[in-house]
Amino acid sequence: MAELLHVSDITAGYGDGPAILDGAHLTVEPGKVHCIIGPNGAGKSTLLKSICGMLTIRKGDVIFRSKRLNGMRPDQILREGICFVPQERALFPKMTVRENLRMGGFIIDDHKELHRRVEEVLERFPMLKAKADEFAGTMSGGQQQTLAMARTLIIKPSIVMLDEPSLGLAPKVIQEMFDIMKTMSAEGITVLLVEQNALMGLKNSDWGVVLDLGSTLFEGPAKEILADPRIQELYLGGKKAAA
Ligand SMILES: Nc1ncnc2c1ncn2[C@@H]1O[C@H](COP(=O)(O)OP(=O)(O)OP(=O)(O)O)[C@@H](O)[C@H]1O
Ligand SMILES: [Mg+2]
User: Fold this and answer.
1) How far apart are alpha carbons 23 and 222 in whole angstroms?
2) 49 lines ligand 1 (CB under 6 A)
3) Would you say the CB of residue 88 lies under 6 angstroms from ligand 1?
4) Torsion sign, CA atoms 240, 44, 69, 85
């Protein structure tokens, strides 16, 4: 299948600081779930931030649908259809669930259309509908993560990038988050996530990317990564854990 997004050996860092990414590459195919794994400080979050325009790319390219994204602002990249949910979820805790969903559509000028989309998303997530007028900050971690993911749907994105969506959630709730991602991908939305729990992330993904020290060591079908003894040893907690 044709690539949707291609990141070719990029170099990027914060401000004038040292390069954090150097030789990071990534292939994203439409409608699949992609999972970036790697140790703490590998540059996983930095890679997502580079794709969505929060960092300057010093070398290499980010190509989305044959268009070069390097140098574009985050809001321009969002308008292209690439939505980023950072690790801290970036909800507005003192705004209601409905208001948070409206904020997700800040690039939509047509108010009626925005209203329609917000109600559509609320219909899709009964839990959010039940809490539509409650402050986001009063909800549980899983409910907040659901809201953060649902909010991306307002702009009908092509790619949703999620940084550690499972962070701080109970195992049962984590599976619910992966199920939402799978539904999104079944509907044609491409998912690119960073996951601390590499095993769980890969088991729920089609494609895996191993990032270490700012560069991509390996990318390929998640099943192949899970079966690779070297990767099992280094990144998946040994053979037994991956069995
Ligand atoms: N805002 C920042 N300014 C300067 N350096 C940063 C900034 N954020 C991260 N770094 C540095 O970039 C490197 C990679 O960090 P990054 O957050 O991308 O790693 P990560 O793979 O997401 O790690 P983790 O698993 O802990 O989330 C680290 O050395 C970190 O100190
Ligand atoms: Mg991170």
Assistant:
1) 21
2) no
3) no
4) positive
Contacts of 54 (CB under 8 A, 6+ apart): 74, 84
Atom of ligand 1 nearest to the CA of 38: 21
| Residue 92 CB less than 6 A away from ligand 1 | no
Q: Hey, whose CA ends up nearest to atom 7 of ligand 1?
A: 14
pLDDT tens for each residue of the chain, 243 residues long: 578 999 999 999 999 999 999 999 999 999 999 999 999 999 999 999 999 999 999 999 999 999 999 999 999 999 999 999 999 889 999 999 999 999 999 999 999 999 999 999 999 999 999 999 999 999 999 999 999 999 999 999 999 999 999 999 999 999 999 999 999 999 999 999 999 899 999 999 999 999 999 999 999 999 999 999 999 998 888 755 545
CATH number, span 32-41+82-242: 3.40.50.300
| Cα–Cα nearest to 76, from 54, 61, 56, 59 | 54
Ligand nearest to the CA of 235: 1
Phi-psi region of 35 (alpha: psi -120 to 50; beta: other; left: phi over 0): beta
4: amino acid identity, one letter: L
The whole-angstrom separation of Cα 181 and Cα 85 is 13
CA 167 to chain centre: 13
Strands across the sheet with 33-37, in order? 82-85, 159-163, 190-194, 33-37, 207-212, 215-221
